[in-house]
Fold:
Amino acid sequence: MIQTRSRRDRVDDQHSQNKTSGRQGSQAERLYRIKHLLSDAGGVTKARLLGDLGISRATLTRNLTHLRDRMNMPVVYVRDSDVYRIDPSQTLPGAQYELPGLWFSAEEIHALLTMQHLLANLDAGGLLGPHIAPLTLRLGKLLGQGAPAGAEVVRRIRVQTVGARKVHLPHFQAVGTALLQRRRLAIDYHARGRDQRSQRTVSPQRLIHYRDNWYLDGWCHQRRALRSFSVDAIQRAQVLDQPAIDVPDTELDDVLGAGYGIFAGRAVTWATLRFSPERARWVAAETWHPQQRGRWDGQGCWVLELPYADPRELVMDILRHVPEVEVMSPPSLSDSVRKRLVKALQAMAPLDERSVVSDGTGSFPEPA
Structure:
């Protein structure tokens, strides 16, 4: 049977929702008032709490229990003087018993728990876990004694990270301190591409989380130029007393953000890629570069145009789609992809068919 609801029914429902919302708001205000009264150095009697708040003994008991058990407020009852007060000596080291100005609904707490879980999974280097764990426990308490929402979030949501490199926490903290306090940073750095180690003094500009790894964009005082450093390749980090120099955002974007991926460079070249109709169904929905241009051709293929300054990362991404992609231009990029394919075929060929390819990109020697 189909039932229709009158306008009067809807008005009554809205009135009921408003009353519920009002009760929640009044409870939040009352908890703040209780906290204010308890902050008196001498404490406050139950009679005064009941009189000032205009509530029953049962409601007062529930509110005090809520503040003590769910908000971690160290509320104690002093029998000798018959008063309630806050006892700072019972506060756990590093614990806080209030979120100033913030009162969360159950839906908001669920959302925060979900965000926390996503952050924890994205944090493959273990940088945020120690700082997020107390918040997770606190949010769980705020939800009450029902089903463990945090455990349900973990069970229902999966975030997979691939290729994340572990970062040494003290080094990451030093980088963050220097960045936010605008101080220079002395680092020992391992450039893996050249397998070289060097000592640098850097004025940090911004921290980038890219493809599950952290990078520091900074002004290198040795090279007198902007550089991007992989944080996990920093082997020593010391915050210096010298102030960092500031590079304008426009220059940072022009030098470090103009090309493709993590590789920097002012001079960019535009690449044109053509994806097969089958692969185009995925690639057409992807963002490879903020300035990319895409279009469908007459054969159902997706033609993608994008800038790059250094071809290395772009070549790797193109190889993921071989043989469903064609490099239309420039010829130099097509040659780079072809050379990598030849090297891959050489590496996977039987030992008696392998040959060393002298293309400047290295070779796969016979196993010892």
